[in-house]
Amino acid sequence: MAHIIVVGNEKGGSGKSTTSMHVATALSRMGHRVGVLDLDLRQKTLGRYVENRMKFSEREGLELPSPRYTDLPEIDPADLVEGENIFDQRLSAAIALLEPESDFILIDCPGSHTRLSQVAHSLADTLITPLNDSFVDFDLLAKVDSDGQNILGPSVYSEMVWHARQLRAQAGLEPIDWIVVRNRLGAQQMLNKQKMGSALDKLARRIGFRHVPGFSERVIFRELFPRGLTLLDLREVGVKRLNISNVAARQELRELLKAIALPGVEVSI
What we know:
By secondary structure, this protein is of the alpha/beta class.
């Protein structure tokens, strides 16, 4: 069976789609078969990212390693058995479509609580939660005191993950490997970094996740999206010499993949 990676966070703007596209494309470049789903049925940022990639590749005559994207199939409500949820059935049908030809299925969740997101979390073998390095975003995981030093209790997203873990345990499945990825790490603001790191350490021990550095704030990510490109494609599209920022960003991606430690993946990018 395909290993299911869910990229989730109930807050927008945390870098979910950028993280999803880079992880999926990196796995494709390393020879793994990757299927991707976008559960944000309104914005479909990841879906448009992949579509941009296909159009750019065709226009430029390139064969860029890419994940396989599919929309959620439509389901006729008349075909549902009483008590079945149409969104559950659409997600199950999409996974069934991708699984025979995939080593990994990556699911990008919307930045809000939806039925699709809730079900996807219960299917996750690996859960990646991108988080801006800010206590505004941290509040989604846990409530802290005014100094940011003491954890007062889990917040809404952590409770949703806990529920997903309970469902997996009841079904006899392996526990979710939950990784919180700290995105938009600034070069300055050292005190905030230290406070965030300390708070994440405490919360990780309390509710069970790993936290690792992700991507720093870089203009390059906004420039890549319209062409559907990732940091790993730059030389193939004619960038002969990477600047220091691009080299550093590629190293961040490499370190992130190593930290996620997906089964059967030897990082070679």
